[in-house]
Structures are given as C-alpha cells and as structure tokens.
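Hi L.,

As promised, NF-kappa-B inhibitor-interacting Ras-like protein 2:
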Amino acid sequence: MLKSSSGKTCKIMVVGHKGCGKTATLEQLIYGLSPAREIFATIEDIYCAQIDNDRGGKERVQFYDSAGVDSSCPEVSKAYLSHADGIVLMYAVNNKESFLLLEQLKKDIDKHKEKKELTFLVIGNKSDLNAERQVDIQSAINWATKERVRLVEVTAMDRKSADGIVLMYAVNNKESFLLLEHLKKDIDKHKEKKELTCLVIGNKSDLNAERQVDIQAAINWATKERVRLVEVTAMDRKS
C-alpha cells in the first residue's frame, strides 16, 4: 500500500491500451458508477479520492487517468510520470494486444523514472468477459512475477471485484504459516459468494537462517488455494 506522510497526497498514474477500461474502473472504485454504454476516448483527467489506511485514518490520493495508447506509440506521459508515486498498468483480458503492450510501457517507465522508486500494480480488467478471454491468466501471472509487480483481475461492472485480502506470515514462524489455512477457510465460509482477490505475503525473508517455513511447501499451498504468494522483508522496501 502507498502511504503518504502527513498532509501529502499520493499520486497514482493509470496507463494502458485504448479501450481497456481505465476510466470506467476509476469511476466504479471512486463513485460506484457503472460503465457508460457509450465509450469516449480519454484525453487525460484527474480524480481525487480519500481512502482508508491501516492506521485508522485516511490518505489523499490523486489518480492521473492518462490517454489510452497502442503499439504504434507505447509511451507514457513524462509530465505525469515525473510526479507519480505509483503506477497502475491496465489491460483487458479480452484483448491480447493490450496485455502485450504492458511490457513496452513498463520498459518506457523504467527508462524515464530517473532512479525514482515506484510502486506498481497490474490490473486485468473485464474479467466478466471470460468467454472472450485472450489473455491466459498463467501467462499474466508469470509476467507479473518476472517483473516483481502485483497482479489482480477485476471488472468495472462490479465494484466488489476490486476488493481483496492480504494474508501474511513470517518465514521464521511456522505457526504463523499454519494459521493461514484456518484463516482462509474462515474467509471462504463468510465471504457470501463474493469473489475476493487474495495475496499471501511471507514476511521477514531476510531471516533466512532462521527459516521455519519451507518455501516449496508455501508454494504448494498457495497453488492449491489458487492464490498468489510473494516473500518480502519489511527491512527493504525494494523487496
């Protein structure tokens, strides 16, 4: 999660292929609006919102909704990029070109971010159009893992699809890992048929010498539960 210091506004740049649903997703998340039937190309726009943080307060966030791009010019707005704290890369699951474009956009951002640390989130939109899917979910996961970015699939048709759960354990505490299975069962029992994106984080990966949780066992469990697993250390933001 992006965290701002007191009084600071976090600035998030949203980029992606033309027609992938950037504006519709933002308006669903911020205003609860369903996508309009008639689609107009976005030139550029700014959305302001307040979001709850994990400390019981609120954070001010500005979303820069950039104009859609395509493979003929896979570049992002450098004016927005210079001010951004985070980047949302978006594609549509029913448009393979929009997914393939992400690699070019990510390279362009990495090239021009001027050594600035940016938080990335990749969103696969239009997950309700699974029958028209052109982007294999495993291919998307593999790419996101390679790029070390988080991936979620949502639909702008349903605000609830953007909700998610983060389950965390410590790699040097086996009990914390074993607890995840009980927590996951309890969540599945009470989610009332609601689809939730679930991310499992193994923290304290810097304490590998004290490891009690076998990484392969963790991967096997995450695969069985069909959730994404990453290991990080709070000692290093880059992880």
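The CA atoms of residues 14 and 33 lie 18 Å apart.

Thanks again for sending the construct details.

K.
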